[in-house]
Amino acid sequence: MAEAWTAIGPTAWPTPWIVLAAAVAEAAVGYPDALHRRLPHPVVWLGGAISTLERWWNRPERPPPARRLLGVATVVLVTGAAWVAGFALQSACARLPFGVVAVVAAGTLGLAQRSLYDHVAAVLRPLAAGDLDRARAAVGRIVGRDVAALDDRGVAAAALESLAESFNDGVIAPMFWLALGGLGGLFAYKALNTADSLIGHKEPRWRDFGWAAARADDVFNLIPARLAGALIAAASPAAWRTMLRDAGKHASPNAGWPEAAMAGALGVRLGGAATYDGVRHDRPAFGDGGEPAAEDLRAGLRRYAWACAAAWAILAATGAAMSLETTWPR
């Protein structure tokens, strides 16, 4: 077991035990608001850098090919810088007496289990109390659609869709890339995912400049999204059926997997028409049930918590298996 904790160096990637420790620590503490007010979360810094490059390089007078090329340069520059920062930090930690603790602490920066739960719970509380205005305001902080006209079921559906999709982006994919690529892999993934959320859109302003961010994010999430869907669907045959049937309907090659799994697990319908910036978008629907209510959102949070616990169990089992492999007599 000791080897599993000490094998951390500039070229040795974090073991499952270290990824698990980061996940548990982040779920317990998150990124406290008091700290965020004094030292904004690194994702805020990434977003600022991407937005600055977008203002400099994504000028409307430039032809589409030039904007696409500059978008590629933005992705390479930001993700490359993030990877270098992560690799340098891991290399520095390898020289410290308690470097593994620093790696665990740095690993929490890429995870959002606690934050995601808290933001969705902040929607549930006023929704369950019948305060639709506060519920709309809360869900408006985590979704991009227009929320002013949403009824209570529309608010619940928006929150559940965000919970399911963000389970991949904020939990499973960061764990995956931390385990696979160390702090460099984790930081690079967070940079890429942030770029996709800011510029990877199909509207005319970003269609060319954000093309590289959107496509690269699709590739980096191919495996994690399917793992996220499987964890949500675990022990629910209905969820598996719905996920395998409906996941491919989504415009994204990845977002449909956890979203369809959540719809099937709760027996509700997610997706469907939504309005963004005053424009109606006819999106595909997932699941066979009715529109979700507040109690379905509560059940969705429970399902999310169990899915996180299942991910922890897999990390622990993998770490134990690796420890046995290194200590078992041959």
Quick structural summary:
The protein is mainly alpha-helical and 330 residues long.
Describe this protein's structure.
There is one protein chain. With 330 residues, the protein is mainly alpha-helical. It has one domain. The chain contains 14 helices and four strands. It has helices at 2-6, 16-29, 33-38, 42-57, 64-93, 99-108, 113-128, 132-140, 152-199, 211-220, 222-233, 237-246, 256-266, 294-327, and strands spanning 270-271, 274-276, 279-281, 285-286. Helix 2 packs across helix 9 (152-199), helix 2 packs antiparallel against helix 14 (294-327) and helix 7 (113-128) packs antiparallel against helix 9 (152-199). The longest helix has 48 residues, at 152-199. It is globular, with a radius of gyration of 20 Å.
Radius of gyration, Cα only, in angstroms? 20 Å
Strand order of the largest sheet: 1-4
For the terminal residues, how far apart are their CA atoms? 17 Å
> Could you list the spans in which at least 5 consecutive residues all have pLDDT below 50?
1-11
Largest sheet geometry:
2 strands, antiparallel
Report the average pLDDT across residues.
91
Share of helix, binned? over 70%
Structural class: mainly alpha
Please trace the helix and strand order, writing H or E for each element.
Answer: HHHHHHHHHHHHHEEEEH
List the total number of helices.
14
The global form is: globular
Q: Tally of extended strands?
A: 4
Percent of residues in β-strands: under 5%
Query: How many structural domains?
Result: 1
